[in-house]
Amino acid sequence: MRTTRLFAAALLPLAAAACSVTTDTSNSADLLAAFQTAPFGMSNVSTTFATSSDQESTPWAPPGRPGHEFDRHGPRGGPMGFIMGGLGGGFLGGGFGPHFGDRPANEDGQGGTCTFNSGTGRVECEPVTHNGLTIIRSAQYKDANGAVQNGFDNQTTNSINTQISVTGTVTRRDNATSEVDHQSDRTVTGLAAGSTERTVNGTSHGHEVTTGTDRTGDFVADRVAEDAIQNVVIPVTTNGHPGFPSSGTITRSMTVTVTYTGSDPVTSNRQEVITFTGNHSATITITHNGETRTCTITPDARPSCS
């Protein structure tokens, strides 16, 4: 997991610096900073978003709160780029790990006690609490013939489906409260010994509603983040390490709405469509409030945007 995060941290600021998406000067431009981080606690589910973008201690608040002024230039002083810090390293050749979904549900120590349920055909983990949130995880293991297994076998298990939910309410130091409700469902195939590639399919949905008061007034900040992975094929090299995806598509989106008492809601939205084209490259189409930019990216180069 450490390798993945370091790889993502090294690459993604380049992406943010290279792709300025919007020239929006309307009220919704004040919400640009909301796209820099994932909803609180969303790093506990399986998503394509960079895990380091989940601000566990400080959920996002609108710019009227002291210390949260709007930063139109995005993270690290560069123009706004990918949603929530960019892609997780597993989708950039940066490595796999338990959180990617190709390990048993409790291997990373966060799943609690897990037992096989013959009725559901799933290994189900008892709920655990982390940062005030309740996390429920389960996994289903199958061999190459599609037969359900009662546990992970590092030689014969060929596919793992992980399902995770995260719910709860957290209170911040400024007494604002954030309610979260996140889910993910991901399947990774091609895990059996000798496989030369892995195929990933899955979805995630994150919802964070923060209620509080700042110098502007009482507010409700609503963020919805989603992604969908469609047949992303990740080669496994001869030394056993993953490579840059060779095909498949990832669609990611976030919608942010802030409502102050007595004022109309202000909404901003962004979508990213990432298409892996082979030859160690991908095309990324980013649409923010109707404005679209198209970029290409490789594992070791700055994105090029038109």
Number of domains: 1
Query: Which structural class fits the helix and strand makeup?
Result: mainly beta
Number of strands: 14
Q: What is the oligomer described by this structure? A: single chain
Average pLDDT reading? 80
Sum up the overall morphology in one term.
Answer: flat
Major sheet description? 14 strands, antiparallel
How much of the polypeptide forms β-strand, as a percent range?
35-45%
Distance between the termini: 33 Å
Computed Rg: 20 Å
- Counted by DSSP, the helix tally is 1
Poorly predicted tracts of residues: 1-26, 65-80
Give helix % range. Answer: under 10%
Succession of helices and strands: HEEEEEEEEEEEEEE
Structural key phrases:
306 residues, mainly beta, 14-stranded antiparallel beta sheet, 1 helix, 6% helix, 43% strand, flat
Topology:
Blueprint: H1 2-18, E1 114-117, E2 122-125, E3 128-130, E4 133-142, E5 148-149, E6 159-171, E7 177-189, E8 197-213, E9 218-235, E10 247-260, E11 266-278, E12 281-288, E13 291-298, E14 301-305
Antiparallel strand pairs: 1-2, 2-4, 3-4, 4-5, 4-6, 6-7, 7-8, 8-9, 9-10, 10-11, 11-12, 12-13, 13-14
In summary, what is this structure?
By secondary structure, the chain is mainly beta. Helix content is 6%, strand content 43%.
